[in-house]
Each structure stands twice: as C-alpha cells, then as structure tokens.
Amino acid sequence: YPSMIRRIQAPVMMKMLKPQEGEVILDAGCGAGFFTYELAKRCKLCIGIDWNLNEGLALATSRQSKVAYVKGDIQRLPFVSEVFDKLLLSSVLQMVEDDRALLGECHRMLKGNGVLVLSVPIEYIHLKRLNDYKQQLKEMFGSLGKAYYDYNEIIKLLPSVGFEVIETEYSPKWWGSLIFEVGLYLNYRFRFPYSSPLSFIFLYPIAYFDRFASKKQIGNEVIIKARKVPDE
User: Fold this and answer.
1) pTM of this prediction?
2) Do residues 74 and 91 touch, judged by C-beta distance below 8 A?
3) DSSP 44
4) Over the range 117-144, which residues count as b (16 or more CB within 10 Å of their CB) and which as e?
5) Cα(210)–Cα(68) distance, integer angstroms
6) What distance in Å separates the CA atoms of residue 36 and residue 58, rounded to the nearest whole number?
7) CA geometry: angle at 24 spanning 71 and 2, to 5°?
8) How far is CA 90 from CA 9, 79, 213, 216, 230, in A?
9) CA distances for 96 relative to 10, 31, 48, 103, 111, angstroms
10) SS3 helix, strand, coil % of the chain, rounded to 5?
C-alpha cells in the first residue's frame, strides 16, 4: 500500500542524506524500495536490504542500473565493514528487538565519518488518546522492539553507540501529523481502510502541504542525522 507518511518525509530524508554521485548508500529495511530507487538516481550505487522483499523490486532493478536489492536480516548485515558512505533507517529501529545491536551494525558498515539518517515514531500530539493504545498499536504494526521512543531517549542512545547527532527535524509536522493520527485512529477503532489506495488519493494531497503550513517544530515522528565517530 502507498505510505503517506514516508512520502511526506521524503524531502527531509533527501535533504539530510544529500546523496552524491560517487557515494555508495545502504537503505536498511527498505520495504517496498521507494527510497532505495530514488537515492540510486543521485549516487554511485544504492543497496536496499529487507527480510521481505516485494516482487516489484525486480522490475525496479531492471530499470535502474545503480540500484540493487538484497534479501537479508538487517541486524546481521551481510557486508564487509566500512563499505558505505551513508545509511538510511526509515522507520526501522523501533521494529527490531535489539536496537543497540542494529545501530552497532550501522556503525560497522559506515566509513569513517559516515552519515546515518533515521526516523522513529515518538508521541501522538493531536489525538493523545492514541498514546494510551501504544501497546495495541505495537502489536498491530508487528513491532518486535520498542515501537516508540521518547525524543530525549533516542538523542541519548545514538552517542552511546558511537554516533554524533548533528541535525534533527520533525516530519510530518503539525498538519501532516493531524492527518496521520486521524486516519490511524479511525483504522484502529473502526477498521477504516486508511492504507487503501483510495484513501491515499484523498489524504496525501492534503498532507503534502504539511511542510508549507507547519511553522512549529513539532510532530509525531522525528528524523535524525548523525555522523559516525570512528573507533579510537
């Protein structure tokens, strides 16, 4: 299904990653390969890895020579150390059992001073009742990990595993978060088909204006850019 929230985040992700022509980038937990494919247009090579690969990725690969997809466990990345210039974890960290181990693998994969960009859910800011349903939503989303982070918690976690936080930005912001939370609440309480392509057609154009209409630095997910601190 289309992912409204990932499309809203795409400009922020690209701005933080700043893919360059000579770089090799890893999209860990690539899902449907949306970011992988787009990043490959701007760098030397982008590799997407996920345990459950979409059949459509084979078609995407055939159309883009600078992209490749690997089926594998992101907690045990099948690559040699210090091979990637940049690494993306788009809404992945909260899904795994051992977040520190995954971040350790990311640190190992990145070259010296390599860049990690990740997004994680935090608090629901409009329909605060959703915060009371976090355990149920965790099960609904199939998360094996924390599912949600406190902002300060994730900011402190990264330095403890060898990363220096250099930039953060909420995305979606106020308006996009409102659209997302209303849809999520209707889906959870009344099984409203929030993820159906039909609802996406109507909701995404509205949420798209999130980056123009939102002035406050607030939102229900945060995107973080961090730099690897090389081992001494």
Assistant:
1) 0.91
2) no
3) S
4) bbbbbbbbbbbeebeebbeebbeeeebe
5) 32
6) 13
7) 55
8) 9, 19, 24, 23, 23
9) 22, 14, 17, 11, 23
10) 45, 20, 35
Nearest to 141 by CA among 71, 70, 91, 203: 91
* Alpha carbons 150 and 153: distance in angstroms, whole number: 5
User: Which residue type, as a one-letter code, is found at position 179?
Assistant: I
Q: What angle do the packed helices 99-109 and 151-160 form, to 10 degrees?
A: 50
Q: Tell me the pLDDT of the chain (232 aa) as tens digits.
A: 457 888 889 999 999 999 999 999 999 998 888 899 899 999 999 999 998 876 666 555 656 778 888 888 888 888 889 999 999 999 999 999 999 999 999 999 999 999 999 999 999 999 999 999 999 999 998 999 999 999 999 999 999 999 999 999 999 998 889 988 988 898 888 887 766 666 677 777 777 788 777 666 789 999 999 999 987 6
CB 147 within 8 A of CB 134: yes
Which DSSP state fits 94?
A: G
Cα-flanking dihedrals φ and ψ of residue 5, to 5°? -65, -35
CA–CA distances in Å: residue 36 to residues 19, 133, 136, 137, 170: 11, 32, 30, 27, 22
Check residue 130 and report its DSSP letter: G
